[in-house]
Amino acid sequence: MTATLPLFPLSTVLFPGGRLPLRIFESRYLDMVRECLRNESGFGVVWRMDTDPADLGGHARIGTEAVIQDFSTLEDGLLGIECRGRRRFVVRSTTARDNGLLIGQVDWLKDRPASAIAPHHGALQALMREIQSHRELGAEVQADAEDAISLGFGLAAVLPIDSPRAQNLLEMTDAHQRLDMLLDLIESELSKASST
Q1: CA-CA distances (angstroms) from residue 156 to 9, 28, 134, 171?
Q2: Which residue of 98, 121, 134, 159 has the fewest CB atoms within a 10 Å radius of its CB?
Q3: Are 33 and 61 contained in the same domain?
Q4: pTM for this structure?
């Protein structure tokens, strides 16, 4: 089923369950936040693949709905919002409002149902439990270490992964493939660190 969602192209990839703090200053996004709060609705975060914020076409087709959990006026007078990623979507088409806000026609995406977490992914479960035991890091993500989909998205949200790889992880529909890729990335980083 197609839904209409305001889109916020950013230089970061948001995952379901991931935390996203934002400073809002452009009028189109201030209007978007007001509208989302009034309608108790979310907005779509899509990875901006180019460096020019004025280029509305340079964003990924798959993104994550962000839900505003809190807002405040920051010390510099700007609006600060705390968001949490909820569900993924694919952008079917876009239009721009007069104020430049991008509006997407989107379809919601679901992962294929995941079976039990494979034994070779046990290290990822242990890593997630370790992350969740830290006060600051634990607040960054909401994830269930027993669920392959939630575990993969949770780790992808907190690990330092470059945007192209993060987008690839977001777009995967098989939770076990996502965990395999995360395991490969971690092992690759560990091997680089041990060889220096």
Answers
A1: 19, 29, 17, 12
A2: 98
A3: yes
A4: 0.89
Which pLDDT score is estimated for 193? 76
Q: Do 173 and 104 have their domain in common? A: no
Tokens describing residue 131: 């992350």
Which of 74, 89, 108 finishes a domain?
108
Backbone Cα Rg of the chain: 17
Low-confidence ranges of the chain (pLDDT < 70): 50-57, 114-115, 196
Annotate 138-178 with DSSP letters as a single string. HHHB---TT-HHHHHHHHHHHS---HHHHHHHHH---HHHH
Q: Which of 108, 126, 104, 109 is nearest to 117 (CA)?
A: 126
pLDDT number for residue 55 = 47
Domain co-membership, 70 together with 124: no
- Give me the numbers of helices (H) and strands (E) for the chain, helices first please: 6, 6
3-class SS string, 30-47: HHHHHHHHHHCCCEEEEE
CATH of the domain at 160: 1.20.58
Q: Supply 128's token pair.
A: 């997630």
Interatomic CA distance for residues 105 and 95, integer angstroms: 9
Of the candidates 87, 76, 81, 72, the residue with the CA atom closest to the CA atom of residue 17:
87
